[in-house]
Amino acid sequence: MPFDETDPFSPPPIVDPSIHKASLELGIAGFQYQDLYEPARLRDLHQVFFAELRDRNPDLVNRFERYATEGAEATSEIAVSNLLVEMAPFVGKFVAKVFQVEDFRNGQIEIAHRDKTIFDFKREFLTRRSLKKYKDLESVLKFAGANSLAAFGSWTESLEIAEPAPADPELHFARTAIRISKLEKEPDVLLLESLRDGLRGELKERLFGDDVELAGKLGSMLEAYAAWIYLDPKERAHTKSWASYHLPHAMDYDHLVEVIRPESLLPEKFAGPESEFRRRDGFALTDSRMSPRFVQSETDYCVFCHERARDSCSKGFVDKEGGFKKNPLGIPLEGCPLDEKISEMH
């Protein structure tokens, strides 16, 4: 399937191996692809980058050169992290110019901004509000029956109260949910009047009220509906492909791998759950890899912790005695052995 940068589910592009690297012109005048393998030419390219950056941000160049000369030991870890994060956008833009992929980079930035709404919904509404309130399906159905929830879902699908996304139901729902949740804090009289006029049947009886009441009832119903389509197995099938509904689970260290023992008389015989089977077709990979949106979702889940020197993924989980904490299997949580700047990369 060809790559489509507008499609969040499209696989990443495949580089054409037929390109003759020796004659590939770079986006910087006077440089060709083979120069990337020559230390002296890399130094020249490095100088071009800093010359351009010095015209735009001389203070940043001076601070980075001081860091490069004196080393990380001469400043605090947080200052180094902040410097790398501040430098990164300029490096990214320059690399895109070198390989003449500025338009592709700009398209990816637009997609990232677009999908931020999905991750905001996932973090601020679904996780911290909806699923915090409703821990199980029974509690959801006590608030509203399945028919009422289904009717509400169909109603939200038809709403056009946010930027439309007709070919992307996840994005449409996230935008709609964010817009409804904002009405609770900032009532929009005209929008609420329009929503009130669009209510029919049971939804009208359940949600009807003045502006403040309607906004509150909409928010409460949205909480229940968002939880319902996650907690109900039948509804969950419809959101399985949604990155916003791909949530972390508690790890059971006594059962790291789920197994099924199909024959009681042969307990040593086991298999994985059939729902997780991935059939092999010829020599093709059984793992199709994550879509760009799912990758971005994992990135969004990461928090900015280097600003507080608490980047445990990189440095490990330190206990009160200065050693490393251990997981239930007794393995020390020492962080990244390569000293990767994980939080900074996010």
> What do the pLDDT scores average to?
87
The largest pleated sheet is described as:
none
Shape: globular
Distance between the termini: 29 Å
Q: Radius of gyration in whole Å, from Cα? A: 26 Å
- What portion of residues belong to β-strands? under 5%
The gist of it:
This protein is an all-alpha fold. The chain has helices at 39-56, 58-70, 77-98, 102-133, 137-143, 146-158, 169-185, 189-198, 201-207, 211-231, 233-236, 292-301, 312-315, 342-345.
Describe this structure in words.
- There is one protein chain.
- The chain has 346 residues and is mostly helical.
- It contains 14 helices and no strands.
- It has helices spanning 39-56, 58-70, 77-98, 102-133, 137-143, 146-158, 169-185, 189-198, 201-207, 211-231, 233-236, 292-301, 312-315, 342-345.
- α7 (169-185) runs antiparallel to α10.
- The protein is globular.
- The model has no long low-confidence stretch (mean pLDDT 87).
